Amino acid sequence: MVTFYRRLPRFDYIAPKTVDEALSLLSRYKGKAKVIAGGTDLVPKLKRRQIETPSCIVDLKGISDLDCIRYDEKDGLRFGALTTSRAIETSPVIKGKFTVLAQAASSIGSVQVRNRGTVGGNICNAVPSADTAPALLTLQARLKIVSHKAESDLPHIP
After folding, report:
1. 76-101 pLDDT, tens per residue?
2. Contacts of 89 (CB under 8 A, 6+ apart)
C-alpha cells in the first residue's frame, strides 16, 4: 500500500535578506537546516518524507544579490545562484553568446519548473537531471562557494 502525504512536515521558516544573514543562520542551526531557493527538489522530498525533516528551512529567494545576470567583455558572464532556469533560457546575452547554456536550461522540466527552479539548485542537488552542469563544464565555468568560514572559487575542470 502506498501512503500519500499532502502536507509538509513542521519546521521553522526563515527568509534572510542578505548572504551574511543566511550564513549566520546556517551556522547557528549546525546542519539541522535546509536551504531552499526554488524548492523544486526539496519540497516534493519533504512531502514524500524522503528526507529527514529539518529544524529550519532557510529561504534564499529574498536575497536579491543572488538573482542576477551580468555580462561584460572583461569579466564575461556572471549570474547568481538564484537565477532561474527560465531567466537563463530567455536571456538575450546568454542566447546570443552562450547558446549551449540557454539550450540546456530550456530542457529542464516544464516552464513552471523553469520559472521557479534555480541554476544554483540544479547544480547543487547533483541529480541526473542537472542539465545545466554539462553546459557549464563545456563553457569552463567557475563557481564561487561561500560559507560562514571562507569563500573560494572553484575553477573549471580542464
Report:
1. 999 999 999 999 999 999 999 999 99
2. 95, 102, 105, 106, 114
> Was domain 65-154 assigned CATH 3.30.465.10?
yes
Q: How many alpha carbons lie under 13 Å from residue 140 in its C-beta half-sphere? A: 2
**Considering Cα of 139, then 155, then 18, then 147, what sign does the dihedral take?**
positive
How many Cα atoms within 13 Å fall on the side-chain side of residue 24? 8
* Cα–Cα distance for residue pair 156/140, rounded to 1 Å: 5
Instruction: Please say whether the beta carbons of 121 and 84 come within 8 A.
Output: no
* Residue 45, C-beta contacts closer than 8 angstroms, at least 6 positions apart: 51
Biggest distance spanned by C-alpha atoms of the chain: 59
The string of DSSP letters for 101-148 reads HHHHHHTSS-HHHHHH-BHHHHHHT--TT-THHHHHHHTT--EEEE-S
CATH code, residues 12-62: 3.30.43.10
Q: Would you list the domain boundaries of the chain?
A: 12-62, 65-154
pLDDT tens track for 127-154 = 777 889 999 999 999 888 888 788 888 7
